[in-house]
């Protein structure tokens, strides 16, 4: 059974992020399910330990009992078989925000990424906030370089605009031109979109948390507020 995807817009581990994260814990198997925090995106400014610990504290606060932040901070650790084994046994894998390009380049084609895929294919939840959500898509925008990069492609034909209610919305016009056939996912802070659709069909989504999710098809926005659901497979043929 394929698992679930949770994409969050940023400002994780506080406030109304409790709503999507609690639902993710439930889908992962409950409070005793093994949860793994991936702090890679925070490594370039040496913030990974603090950020990872924040994640552990947050999930403990929500009631989870089996939470660990892994020292996955570079290509060497991304290919560490010991860390990959822990990831493959996880039921909820959460990638933090930070430096998007660094996260994408570090994870891609690594042993840890293969472990994430194995876990996902056996029913685990893959979650990401801000940079973590961005790399989950087929494309992500690297603001440091000002270009579009191929992501991990858990969600084909998509690109996330994180922090949509603060600065992410300002990327919409540029990215609609760079990726005219892709669906842009504008996700507000303290907000998540989680696929609650039928098993194996990633088309039924629900918005959780504080704000809204804005889908851009060929530059035209459609807004879904917290508590609302939508069906979307993001393929170009269905736009």
What does this 3D model show about the protein?
It is built from eight helices and 14 strands. With 239 residues, it is of the alpha/beta class. The strands form two sheets. An eight-stranded mixed sheet has the order 3-2-4-5-1-10-11-14.
Quick overview:
It contains eight helices and 14 strands. It has 239 residues and is an alpha/beta fold. The chain has a single domain (4-238), classed as Rossmann fold (3-Layer(aba) Sandwich).
Q: How many H/I helical runs?
A: 8
As for the CATH topology, it is Rossmann fold
Spans where pLDDT lies below 50 across 5 or more residues: none
From the N-terminal CA to the C-terminal CA, the straight-line distance is 27 Å
Architecture in CATH? Answer: 3-Layer(aba) Sandwich
Mean pLDDT: 93
**So what's the CATH class?**
Alpha Beta
Largest sheet: 8 strands, mixed
Count of beta strands: 14
| Helicity level | 25-40%
